[in-house]
Amino acid sequence: MRLATSRHGVVVAGLAGLPTYTRANSLSQFYFVNGRSVRDKVLVGAIRAAYADYTFRDRFPVVALYIAIDPAEVDVNVHPAKAELRFRDAGAVRSAVIRAIGEALTAAGFKASTSVADDILGAFTAPQYATAPAGAPPQRRDFTRPAMPFASYDRVSGYGSANPFSPQYGAQQQGIEGLNEPSARVESEAAPALMEFPLGTARAQMFDNFIIAQNSEGLLLVDQHAAHERSVYERFKAQLASGPVPSRAQLIPLVIELPEEDCARLEDAAPDLERFGLYLERFGPRAIAVRETPALLGNSDIEGSVRDVADGLAEWDTSSAVADRMDEIIARMACHGSVRSGRRLRVDEMNALLRDMEATPHSGQCIHGRPTYVELKQKDIERLFGRSR
Question: How many CB atoms lie within 10 A of CB 223?
């Protein structure tokens, strides 16, 4: 990603890696201020903050950052080798860097690093035949049984007006029939049009969690839970930015049994949790009653979400935990509010998720930093089989 922005008299330029392209240390982060190579805690912290929503906390993005600033605003005499410096207005520099990274991430949209696909291609090797003892019959692989379960469908349909990931759609789409049949190539009138979308059209579901899709250039494997998790998280943030998250009342309050100390923490945090659309009440010494839940989560794993929030409050152990950890709380709730791994999806649900990913910023990686999809170009697949075009 290219960086080019100016803010508060600070010009930020350079290159930054996609969130799915990271390293185990910060040795691949390079900083230059007015042409001088430096190491500065303000810049390192700004990069970490800018990528906080998109990478693991122990992973480091790859960046080459060039800062241009009025020399009078920089003290270069902090270190004898002039490898360190001090900014007169560190907040302005930090803000400029975070904004530059944020704009680049938004412009990147749902892109994931091509290195992910390269790693997968590198994992494919020619089959090796085990050496059998002398006189033993040769070993053969049994091809009479399917190597992996596929979900198939009868037709490919477009992205309709009803969004299957809306709360109203919810869990009513369980019990899908015909998903245990062998996978097969599917043709329809809608398929060619859908293949022109960046993420193409759904072809099948594998292992009850991965969507196989095809676009005009190649094959895509999509992690349905990770992709929907990012979508829910981004919608959660957008709603919270405009005010309290809309809630939906439970017809019958859900009573969750928890240790007494967890109930006490949730009771103390209840007024703050209402901003997230979660309304809780103490229900005896060892239970919490859930009366309202965030509307966008639909019929999700509410009990798991509440338990996860309780674990977070215990970990943070501070009265201001909710205010200080808004992003983490949203992430925990989004995880439980996403379409689960193991749920079998209909073709219209799969295609709706693909269209949702294309419209959701940063959907190329989940909130934990993992890629949500991998794309293999047609030429790469042909190369695996020794074919050339």
Answer: 18
Residues of the chain with pLDDT under 50: 129-132, 138, 140-164, 166-188
Residues 6+ apart with CB under 8 A from 200: 194, 213, 214, 215, 216, 220, 354
Kindly list the strands in the beta sheet with 210-214, ordered across the sheet, starting from the edge strand earlier in the chain.
150-151, 201-206, 210-214, 218-223, 373-377
Q: Secondary structure of 136-147 in the HEC alphabet?
A: CCCCCCCCCCCC
Collapse the DSSP code of 28 into the 3-class scheme (helix H, G, I; strand E, B; otherwise coil) and give the result.
Answer: helix
Mean of the per-residue pLDDT values of the chain: 78
Query: For residue range 299-347, what is the model confidence (pLDDT) as tens digits?
Result: 778 888 899 888 888 887 665 667 667 778 888 888 887 777 778 888 9
What are the pLDDT digits (tens) for 376-387? Answer: 888 888 888 877
Q: Which option is the CATH number for 2-108: 3.10.20.340, 3.60.20.10, 3.30.230.10, 3.30.420.310?
A: 3.30.230.10
Residue 111, beta-bridge partner list? none
| Superfamily, domain 110-122+148-389 | MutL, C-terminal domain, dimerisation subdomain (3.30.1540.20)
User: Three-state SS for 41?
Assistant: helix
Task: Measure the CA–CA gap between 372 and 363, rounded to whole angstroms.
Answer: 7
